[in-house]
Amino acid sequence: MSQTPSRGGSTSPEPDESELPAPITVMLSSRLMVLANLLKRGAILRYKRLTGLSSVEFGLVASLGRGPAMSVVRLAEAVGQDKGQISRALAGLMSRKLIAKAPNPKDSREVLVSLTKAGLAAHDAIVAGAQERNRRLLEHLSEDELQTLLRQVDDLTAIAAEMLEAEKVQR
Q1: What value does the mean pLDDT take over residues 42-54?
Q2: CB count, 10 Å around CB of 27?
Q3: Reduced to 3 states, what is the DSSP secondary structure of residue 3?
Q4: Nearest to 155 by CA among 6, 28, 14, 40
Q5: Measuring CA to CA, which residue among 126, 128, 136 is closest to residue 45?
Q6: Is residue 54 over pLDDT 60?
Q7: C-alpha 82: how far from chain center
Q8: DSSP codes of every residue in 139-153
Q9: Cβ density class 76-103: b for 16+ within 10 Å, e for less
């Protein structure tokens, strides 16, 4: 390592190239992906501990929430998974009596899924856990900083959505 003089006249080590971060790791998108992955991994562990649900299952319970029953196709779209994967997870939730299935009165070919009383309790535990995680994540920010951050995230999300659409066209 070479030495470079600092303002005070002493020398400080110059970073060796092998110590420098890879260029892509300092980009905002990479940093946001690391943050998102850490948050997701922590959430999976918490919800598994609180409710015994896998990541796909807690996504389904969270999506069903306290809203009206949903079709399997709509639920798959909501969680961003394919219908087959969702069907397997729904079977597990059904066996534990966390969801109920019923034919759609408007279309008998379609099945509607909703949470049971036990499923609603799991949902409420997920929401409480999410609120606690959100509070801990943001507690160091002032109200102004939080509002600025949320606006910036919304702006970046809109730009990322535009970029995704542009990539789809490039296929």
Answers
A1: 90
A2: 11
A3: strand
A4: 28
A5: 126
A6: yes
A7: 17
A8: TTS-HHHHHHHHHHH
A9: beebebeeeebeebbeebeeeebbeeee
